[in-house]
Amino acid sequence: MPVAATLALAFAGLVITFVGVWVVQLRTRNAGMIDPVWAGTLGGVAVFVAAAGPGASLNRAAVAVSGGAWGLRLAVHLWRRNSGHAEDARYAALRERWGAAAPRNMLAFFLLQALISMVLSIAFLVPSYSDAIPSFGFIVAALVIGLTALAGEAAADRQLRRFVADPGNRGRVCTVGWWRYSRHPNYFFECLHWCAYAAWSISLPWGWATLVPPCAMAWLLMKVSGVPMLEARLVQTRTGYREYMTTTSALIPWPPRAGARERGTGLDSDDRHSKRN
Description:
Layout: H1 3-28, H2 34-52, H3 57-82, H4 89-98, H5 102-120, H6 122-128, H7 136-165, H8 185-201, H9 212-224, H10 227-237, H11 241-247
């Protein structure tokens, strides 16, 4: 299928799906379900692009498996986390800030997710439309990065879920496992996931374009919809979180600064992001 047709069909599917979620949230007043839907549909885009592309079978199989597995795992995790709970505080804050304009602005916000998904889908398009395959070294590097990212993000999610499930940890910061070394290890492994496509594709024609998705994801998480929105609320509502910020890396796992103390407030199940974005 021509690349223009693939992009058009993928974008149309995303728009239809996200408008449907928007209609549902008009009734439920819970926009948080866009998070698992976003992850699941982006995984679906990976599988669709791999199926539609005329590239080498190995490239297309790698895209379908890696993108599909990533999207499915994250979608299931976010669905379990959000289903049956009150609206995520980030979306509730936006709804309150927008007031009467909330329905219109929320639709624009949802459609922006479709545009972001298309930017990220560059990672799927380049290998799926390339007849060339990477050398053995690049394949190994991509597999190591991808598996590390998938396992690491799953581990970070599991560690936080178990921590907040213990009533004795209520009001405490999660510093177990990866959370001791990064305030947002889930974000780190999310960015790392997109680096796997760059490692696979960098030697292919247009391979440089696959550097855009990990850079875009890191920028969104660190400067726009991830860390800024989350931590602006945490420093106001969680005693001790500011200290945690001064001793612990924001993104890349790193040993805590000297004198770090494991005290303060907690990150509860409503205090961490999903997508993504």
